[in-house]
Structure formats: C-alpha cells, structure tokens
Amino acid sequence: MIVAERKPFEEIAVAASGFRKVLVAGCGTCVAVCLTGGEKEAGILATQLDMAAQLGEREQVFSVGCVERQCDREFLEELGPQIAEADAVISLACGAGIQFLAEAYPDTPVLSGVNTTFIGVNEDVGVWTERCRSCRDCLLTLTGGVCPIALCPKGMLNGPCGGADKGKCETDQERDCAWSVIYRRLENTGRLANLDQLIEARDHRDLLPGRQVHPAYQRRYSAHE
Amino acid sequence: MGEKYEPKILALICTYCTYTAADMAGSMRLQYPPNVRVIKLLCTGKVDVIYLLEAFKAGADVVMVSGCEIGDCHFLEGNLRAKERVAHAKTLLDDLGLGGDRLEMFHIGASDAPKWAEAVEMMNRRALELGPNPLGRKKLQAGQTNIEELRA
Amino acid sequence: MSKFSDALAGGKFVVTVEMDPPRGPALGDMDALANSLGSKVDAVVVSDNRGAVARMSPVLAAHHLIKHSQAEVILTLTCRDRNRLALTSEMLAAAAGGVQNLLLVSGDFVTLGDQPGSRPVYDLDSVQALGLASLLAQGRDFSGELAAPAAFFLGASLPVATEPPALAGIKFAKKLKAGAGYFMTQPVSGAADLEALAQLPMAADTKIIAGLELGDDQEAGPLLELAKELKSGGKASGVHLACPANPQRLAELVDKLS
After folding, report:
1. pLDDT digit of tens for each residue in chain C (258 aa)?
2. What is the pLDDT of residue A182?
3. A55 and B135 in contact by Cβ < 8 A?
C-alpha cells in the first residue's frame, strides 16, 4: 500500500488561511489504512482547523468529505457537489490522488494535507515500513524476496558495501544490512547460488513518467483507433 | 472577562472502574470539585481523538480520560488504546496552541475512590493555572455543540 | 603496468597512505605532505570526498601529485557522487593526467557526511564500476567504442565485518571477476579481523592490503605493532595507513615502519 503522513498542522493551516469555505477530502483506501487520510482523519483535521480559525478569529468554515479512492475518476465525481460549495480543497490522499483530484476539478485550488512517504507494509499496529521503490524491473526472485533497492540505502546490487558492520547498515546501527537479510533468506531456501549471478547496471528510465495499458485494452488506446 | 472563572472539567470515564470509584467517592462523602461533568463509557477504548477535540471546541477547559489500571481492562487493552490516543490528542492541542496539558489520562481502579477525588482536584488546579479555554468564551455558533449538551 | 602493481606483483609488503584533496581551491596545500611522504611509500591514495564531505576533485588532485611530487598515485572514485557517464569521463580524465591506479568504491553514504540531504547517486555499484573500468581498458564504455583505451590497475574495497562472514565472499568473487587486481580492507583493529577474509577460497592468490586508521588522539604504537605483525606473519600484502584528523602523523608512522 501507499503510506503517507500528515503534514505539520501549521503548514496546512497557513496554506488554508486564505480561503473561507474549505473542504477536507479524505481517501478511503491506502491513506485510510495508514491512519493518515481516511474519513476519520479528515474529520480530525477539519475540527482542528475549525478550532484554529476560531482561536485566530478567522471567518472560515470547514466541511468533510471522503471517497473510496481519489485515484479513480468515478469516485472523484462524488465530491462534485461538495467541491462546488468550497473555495478550496485540502486533500488527504497520496500524491497521486491529490493530483487526480486537482485534475478533475481544475478550477478549485487543491492543497496537500499529507506527505506521501513510501510503498510499504503494515508491520504492526501503527507502524509501516518501506518495501518497494517501483523500479519497474523486479529483482525479488533473485534476491530472496528482499529488495536491495528499497532496503539498501545505496541500492547495492551485487552484495553488501564496505560499510556493512556485523549485519547492520552504516547509516543506522538499528537497520539490518539488506544483503545480510538476502543472504539468510537465500540460505534458508537453498538458493545461495543466486548470489553468484552478476547483476548488471540498472536501466534508470524508470524516472520517465510512467504509463501502462493493460494488454486487453491495447486496441482501445492505440494511436490508430 | 469580569465573570468568575469556574473551570469546566469534562471526564470521560470507564463504567467498570473509574465510574465505580467516583460512585464510591460519593458514598464515602469525599470532597472534590463539583464542576466536573462525567460521561460514562463502556470502556475508555471508545474514546476517539475527535471526541477530545470536540470537547475543547465546545469549551471544556480541561478534559480527563480515566480507565482501568493497566492490565485490568475488561476488553483487554481498551485503556491502553485510550492512553495512546490521549497522548496523540495532546500533540494536536499543542499544534493549536491550546496546550496538551489541558488533557490527561488516568488509570483508577473501582475501589480507588480517593484517587478519583485527587485526580479531579489536580485537574481543577491545572485548569485554574492554565486559565480558561479561549474557545469556550467565544459565542457559540449555530450547529456547534454546547458543553451543556454534553453534560445532559 | 604501474610501479604500485609491480611492487605488489614482486611480493613486496607495500605501504600506502591516504591523502585528502584540499578543502579549498589551493592545490599547493597538498605539497608539504606529498613531498615528505611521496618517495617513502608505495602509493598515495587520493580520497574522493571522504566521509561524504566535499573537497577538491580527486582527479585534479591526483594530476597535481603526479606532476609535482615523487608519489605513485592511486585515485579513489566513489559511486556515490557520479553516474556512469560521470564515472566514465573522470576515468578518462584520470588517464589523460597519467593516473595508473584506481580504487573504485561505493563511498560512504551521504548521511554520514556534513550535507546529509545531498542526493546520493549509486547509479553503478562498485562491482559495476570495476566492470566499466575494465571496458575502458578494452577501448569501450557501456555503449560503444572510445577513441582509445584507458587502462588502470584496478583496486576494490573489502568489508571486514559482514554477517555472516561468507557474505563478503560474494562480492569479493564478483570484484575479482570484474577486474580488481588488489583489495583494500575497511579499517581493521587487529589481525583477527582479517581471518574471516583469509578463509575465503578466493583470498589465497589475492593481494589484500589491510586498512589501518589512526585516530588523532590515539597512540601510534599499537598500530605499528599490528602493521609489523601483519608483515611478518604474511597476513596481508601490505598496509594502508590513514589518519584523517591529522595526516601529518602519517610521516612518523611511515618512518617507523620502514
């Protein structure tokens, strides 16, 4: 899932201070699961902003909306009536959802209420950790299901760097060296020979903005139709 | 301001423990500030951050949440969740400049009437030190919750 | 090949020292140390933004030392600050200035330095960088033909504290295959630190130079003892001495070692 964290309150309040009627728009998928931007968190932020406006004696009205996913046009349509009433929208979706909302309602200022942090997993109640950098060329078969691009700060592809220290990373003594984890995992599953393979330099065209069309829809979106 | 400041204390308390302690404090004729408004909950695990914020928005000067002693929750860990949510709500109050000190979590067992009386006493003192919640002194707008409604 | 590679090939116990390029625009800042040490050691290793702190380009510094001192130079290039294009161009520049020895390393992560928010590059890892240098020796880069080949005696680093120890062997083997002719270890504190490496099958015929680092407030004695132990016991092919906080102390170390 996509993980995000709420922006500092001050930053949101300052960005919203110039607007009278503000809609706080939550997203019911990833950011709801990571307790950052779902309906409940939208309510908390709206209440907090309302209190701040009263304390600052600003004439502002805050309302709350939430859709299943802000990264999907058909769900965004549901926000239409509320957005029509608002001078601005604070979106609590991930960066993708915020952009799609702004694209769907180009005449309304859209403000970002969260910082999108990573693609990760729910380790335990209230804890998420990064797992994937969406590099477009997955190595996990080779590396025992442990990603050296996401989990090694240097993205080392052919083994640990010189900073590896007793299984820990040079950047943080609490952080496991990704290559130690990879080694153990491959050892457990009898695949240590995977490590003999030289991994070539990556193709970094993953930095070009991505677009993908499902094979079943190639005809529909091909340039000729 | 002119008028005398009598703090509005809101207490969100668990029926299994603190509520019983408060009841017992009554039968023991223990003295504690009468300006505390009590809302009984089945478990402090029911307390949500939004309730806490709404309480202050409605004008509470201080809010106390009181659940069972650690390890004694009837729902296993409702009081632990409340403890974490209260800690989080304190940071949200700090964000606003209202101050997290206006909110506190307590753990008071059913038989601990004196501890309840002391807790209310302490929060009353704190409310006097911190002064009135400025939000409570603003004119209530239509649709806003009045603390008196919470009390009923 | 280079004087340094000849020394290693001839079985000499080599002594190298670390030198940081100046943290300023004056090349002459290196001269005093280079003159006092250059002729006494087998090579001066010019560091590359060591510790992820910016200094003068090590390529320019290496050129200066080659031109103005007796020192045999090993140029360090990290993968931290350059992508494959920049690594290629720096290697070509190095060759143009007479650099014959390279040490290709991944480089301390930027958060260990003084500008932790810098964007780290690591377009290539150290194995791939060695592969690139080997291609240059054949007159090619990753894409195609160069006007002429650029050949170097290639060095790589070796970790001494991987967990499990066998993990070090993975990259060790790949670096050998990618063209590394000698290895420098991360700083060791005792001969025992080298034992796990020595047990790796590929260690037998490989030139491994032990890294020794002297803290500014540290006595030189124990470090010298360790260097002598490594030499007499044949536990390393040489030692690489560094005293980042006070490089002037290197002269004293080198004198006592020879």
Report:
1. 799 999 999 999 999 999 999 999 999 999 999 999 989 999 999 999 999 999 999 999 999 999 999 999 999 999 999 999 999 999 999 999 999 999 999 999 999 999 999 999 999 999 999 999 999 999 999 999 999 999 999 999 999 989 999 999 999 999 999 999 999 999 999 999 999 889 898 998 899 999 999 998 999 999 999 999 999 999 999 999 999 999 999 998 999 987
2. 98
3. yes
Domain boundaries along the sequence of chain C: 3-257
Domain C3-257 classification at class level: alpha beta
Cβ of C109 within 8 Å of Cβ of A153? The answer is yes
Which chain A residues have a beta carbon less than 8 Å from that of C111? 153, 171
Assign domain A2-118 to its CATH superfamily: Response regulator (3.40.50.2300)
**Residues of chain C numbered 118-137 and touching chain A (CB < 8 Å):** 120, 122-128, 131
Whether the CB-CB separation of C163 and A167 falls below 8 Å is answered with: yes
Specify which residues B117 forms β-bridges with. Answer: none
C86/C83 Cα distance (integer angstroms) = 5
* E strand spans, A96-143: 110-112, 114-124, 127-132
- Cβ distance of A164 and C162 shorter than 8 Å: yes
Rounded to the nearest 5°, which phi and psi values hold at B40?
Answer: -85, 135
Nearest to A170 among C112, C157, C174 (CB): C112
Does C170 touch chain A if contact means CB atoms closer than 8 Å?
A: yes
CA atoms within 13 A on the CB side of C29: 13
Locate the domains of chain A by residue range.
2-118, 133-200
Q: Is residue B152 part of a domain?
A: no
Q: Is residue B2 part of a domain?
A: no
From the list A8, A10, A51, which residue is nearest B53 (CB)? Answer: A51
The model carries a pTM of 0.90
A54 contacts chain B (CB < 8 A): yes
**Between A and C, how many residue pairs show a Cβ–Cβ distance under 8 A?**
99
* 225 residues of chain A, pLDDT tens digit each: 999 999 999 999 999 999 999 999 999 999 999 999 999 999 999 999 999 999 999 999 999 999 999 999 999 999 999 999 999 999 999 999 999 999 999 999 999 999 999 999 999 999 999 999 999 999 999 999 999 999 999 999 999 999 999 999 999 999 999 999 999 999 999 999 999 999 999 999 999 999 999 999 999 998 765
The mean of the pLDDT values for chain C is: 95
Q: Domain span at residue B89?
A: 9-136
Is residue C212 within 8 A of residue C194, CB to CB? The reply is no
Question: Considering its fold, how many domains does chain B have in total?
Answer: 1
The continuous run of DSSP H or E covering B38 comes out as: strand B36-41
Q: Which of C210, C202, C200 lies closest to C234, judged by CA?
A: C210
Hey, which residues does C145 pair with through a beta bridge? C140
Q: Give B 61-80 residues with CB within 8 A of chain A.
A: none
Strands annotated E in chain C: 14-19, 43-46, 73-78, 101-105, 153-158, 182-187, 208-213, 238-242
What's the CATH code of the domain at B74?
3.40.50
In the predicted model, is pLDDT for residue B152 greater than 70? Answer: no
